[in-house]
Specification:
With 274 residues, the chain is of the alpha+beta class. It has one domain. The protein has three helices and eleven strands. The strands form four sheets. A five-stranded mixed sheet has the order 9-7-8-10-11. It has a two-stranded antiparallel sheet with strand order 1-2. Strand 4 and strand 5 form a beta hairpin.
């Protein structure tokens, strides 16, 4: 303690010290622990939000399909892929053109879990678990590419059996939705690595070939159609819009228990672990 005659009040000096290295490391460790605990929670919340948005998109697409069939006396969509002399016919005629007509386009045809298009020309525009498909590498005058500057990108595909004469009903030549049975269990749209899929049924004794993984990393134009939707995009499952307009999540192993066409034999798939 010091004494100054000009200041009759004695003052006590206090020494101010900072954190010790041990204290600093303890604080940093606690912060790291809290972050590590929060990251899985944040990841789960983000995944749940992606799933919810995806289901909403698919419901809109299902509604567009119902509106289309209602306005066309029950006739389902025609399968029109390539019309080089009249490119607008293919561009507007198949499902991407149909849902676009009813205002479902842009982000509404992109799953937030796979919103960015594939940048690989090797797979000819096919997407995978984390990327959308793109028509950039397609042929002009098709559903996916109108010309060299106009092409489509989406995270979803269509059940090609659900087309006029495509085999969606017991009468495989049927063209009207009224011939469809079991609409709540009949796939229309789904998370998919390409614009559509027409999976071959096989049977429980000789089941469909399993893909090498559930990420879609090996998808090519000559890959089996069912590999296009066997993607672990929302956990170990994908979202579907059914023919009745409903939408739901389906476990990948159970995708073959849906009624893909009018003569479908249902069974569980055996798939790889990842």
């Amino acid at each position: 303690m010091t004494y100054d005659a000009a200041d009759p009040c004695p003052r006590r000096f206090t020494g101010l010290t900072g954190f010790t290295v041990t204290e600093l490391l303890t604080v940093v460790g606690l912060i790291a622990l809290i972050v590590s605990l929060l990251l899985p929670v944040v990841a789960k919340a983000r995944a749940a939000a992606h799933t919810a948005t995806c289901l909403s998109n698919l419901r809109q697409m299902g509604t567009a399909l119902i509106l289309y069939t209602a306005e066309n006396r029950g006739r389902v969509i025609d399968y029109i892929w390539y019309t080089p002399d009249t490119p607008d016919v293919a561009w507007n005629g198949y499902w991407p053109g149909v849902v676009n007509h009813y205002g479902v386009h842009d982000n509404a045809i992109l799953c937030p879990a796979a919103a960015e298009p594939s940048t690989s020309e090797v797979n000819r525009g096919y997407g995978n678990v984390a990327f959308a498909w793109t028509g950039k590498y397609g042929v002009d005058g098709t559903v996916v590419r109108l010309n060299d500057t106009t092409y489509r990108e989406s995270s979803y595909g269509y059940n090609r059996y659900l087309t006029a004469g495509g085999g969606f009903a017991a009468d495989r030549a049927a063209v009207r939705m009224g011939a469809l049975r079991n609409g709540p269990n009949f796939p229309a749209f789904m998370d998919c690595a390409y614009v559509d899929a027409e999976p071959f049924n096989y049977n429980s004794d000789y089941p469909a070939e399993s893909p090498p993984d559930l990420r879609g990393e090996h998808l090519r134009p000559d890959s089996p159609d069912h590999w296009r939707f066997l993607l672990a995009r929302h956990g170990r499952g994908i979202n579907f819009a059914m023919a009745d307009g409903s939408a739901r999540w389906v476990r990948l192993e159970e995708t073959y228990t849906l009624a893909w066409n009018g003569a479908w034999r249902k069974y569980l798939l055996k798939l790889p672990a990842n």
